Amino acid sequence: MGIQAGNDIQEGKQLKELHMFYLLDISGSMEGEGIQQLNSGMRETVRILKDKFEGKGDAHLRISVMTFSNAAQWVTGTPDSKYSEYIEDFIDFPEQTAAGLTHLGDALTLLQKGLSREEMLESPTGNKRPIIIVMSDGAPNDDWESALKKIQENRCSSNPSRSPLPWEAMPRRMFSPRSSATARVFCGSQK
To answer: Which domain holds residue 39?
Structure first.
């Protein structure tokens, strides 16, 4: 059983939770080398995070992984666990296959529903700013801008000084059709 929030005390203090959200493009354009890199990269990421956070660090790390193609779905946890797992409990990243379109808007809509204290960010010890990582190789095929706007209006990201994401730069740099980047990390400490 993993560490339960609020029960572990490190150096006399209760640890806050740090949520890492991974939104992974598994659309047809990722077929071949792209999906292989995504699968091996996520397995390596989990290994590194376990090494860094298991019994160490200044926060309880919770990881939530979502895939998106024709639709978005959580691949971690259960509804009872709010689709996240403590890194100590994360067994292995499930192998993904590529198919479908790139519906990033569906993924952002599903993420937005979880970005609240009543949903995924519920914690008796409090939370650090969430980290959201989007991995994609191309341009979305849906209305991602409306979904992004709803996240921007979300209470946890409406105050620019407390925003978990640097929204201003995200769309143009990440979703250029000529972009060769397969991953871009967004976190609250970036400007």
So the answer is: 24-187
Instruction: Collapse the DSSP code of 63 into the 3-class scheme (helix H, G, I; strand E, B; otherwise coil) and give the result.
Output: strand
CA distance 146 to 148: 5
Do 37 and 182 form a contact (C-beta atoms < 8 A)?
Answer: yes
φ, ψ at 27 (rounded to 5°): -70, 170
Using alpha carbons, select from 147, 117, 122 the residue that is nearest to residue 23.
147
| pLDDT tens string 61-115 | 889 999 999 999 999 877 677 778 888 888 888 899 999 999 999 999 999 887 7
Q: Are 172 and 137 in contact (CB under 8 A)?
A: no
- Domain count of the chain? 1
Q: Angle at Cα 52 formed by Cα 50 and Cα 58, nearest 5°?
A: 115
Among residues 76, 136, 70, which one has the least CA distance to residue 99? Answer: 70
Residue 6 placed within a domain: no
Alpha carbon distance 177, 137 (integer Å): 9
